[in-house]
Amino acid sequence: MTTIVHKANTRGHADHGWLNSYHSFSFANYYNPDRVHFGMLRVLNDDTVAAGMGFGAHPHDNMEIISIPLEGDLQHKDSMGTEQVIRHGDVQVMSAGSGITHSEMNANKDKAVKFLQIWVIPKVDNVVPRYGQVTLHAEDRKNKLQQIISPEENATNLWIHQDAWFHMGNFDKGQKADYTIKKKGNGLYAFILEGDFTINGEKLNRRDGMGISDTDKVSIEASSDKAEILLMEIPMA
Q1: What pLDDT, on the 0 to 100 scale, is given for residue 115?
Q2: Would you say the C-alpha torsion 102, 75, 8, 166 has a positive or negative sign?
Q3: How far apart are CA 116 and CA 44, in angstroms?
Q4: Number of other CB atoms surrounding residue 88 within 10 Å
Q5: Which end of the chain, N or C, is less surrounded by CB atoms within 10 Å?
Q6: How far apart are CA 66 and CA 61, in angstroms?
Q7: Cα 190 to Cα 38, 61, 67, 142, 219, distances in angstroms
C-alpha cells in the first residue's frame, strides 16, 4: 500500500478578495512538482466566493468538472444554454469535452458561497459537452457511504467519462466503514470536509487529504461527531 498525506495547511492558497481559494494540487499561480495530480484527479479546489461575485464566462475542454456546494448557492450558465442554481446538497457534473464556455457566480447577494471544484481527466477526448445535476439527501449517508458519481449512467447518481466513483459520508464518532476499490489499479483520494477521521491508521483533520493506492480496501473511522468525508476512487494511470 502506498499513501500520501496532504495536510490542510500545506495546500496552495490564493486570496483575490472576492475569491479565497485553497488548492490541493497545482493550479493557476500555485505550482508544486510533487502535487500536480493524484492519478486522473487533477484539481481539488476549496473555494469561497464573496456575495454577488464569481467567475465570468470562461472556456474548458476535455475535462470532467464536478462542483459540490458546501454553503450557499452557485449560479451556473453555459454555452449549451444551461442555467441552473446549484445549492448546498446538490452535486453538478459538466463534461467539457470538445469545448464549452461557462460562468459560476454566487447566487446570493448577502453571503458567501463555499464549494469544491474538482477536475478529473477523462478517458476519452472530444466528447459532446454535457451537463448533469442531482440533489442529495444527507440522511442517505448517515454513518455510511453514499455513492454520488460513477462511470455508469443511471437515475440515482451522476456519471462521468472516467472509471471513477465518488462517495460522501456523514459519521458520528466511533462509526466505521470499509471502502473496497471497485476497479483494480485504481487509487482512492480522501478529503475531510468536516471533523476528524482515522484512515488506515492515519489521523486526519478538517480539509486534510490522503491518497491511497496499491490496495484493495481502505478502513475509515470517524474520530469526532459530525464528521464528513468525500472519497474519490480514481484511475492512477
Answers
A1: 98
A2: negative
A3: 7
A4: 16
A5: C
A6: 14
A7: 11, 26, 16, 17, 11
* Cα–chain center distance at 151: 15
Alpha-carbon distance of 217 to 2, in angstroms, equals 12
Phi then psi for residue 163, to 5 deg, are -80, 70
The confidence score (pLDDT) of residue 66 equals 98
**All cell numbers assigned to 80:** 449549451
Q: What is the pLDDT of residue 156?
A: 65
Report the amino acid identity of residue 58: H
- Per DSSP, what are the bridge partners of residue 32? none
Geometric angle at alpha carbon 89, from 207 and 219, rounded to 5°: 45
Q: What are phi and psi of 89, to 5 degrees?
A: 110, -20
Domain boundaries, the chain: 12-135, 138-235
Amino acid identity, position 116: L
DSSP 208: -
Report how far residue 149's alpha carbon sits from residue 151's, in angstroms, rounded to the nearest whole number.
7
Asked: is 12-135 a CATH 2.60.120.10 domain? The reply is yes
Q: Cell digits for 193?
A: 470536509
Give the other-Cβ count within 10 Å of 56's Cβ: 10
Q: What does the pLDDT read at residue 157?
A: 73
Nearest in space to 97 (alpha carbons), one of 149, 59, 133:
59
CATH number of 138-235: 2.60.120.10
| AA identity, residue 9 | N
Residues lower than pLDDT 50 in the chain:
none
Whether the domain at 12-135 and the domain at 138-235 fall into the same CATH topology: yes
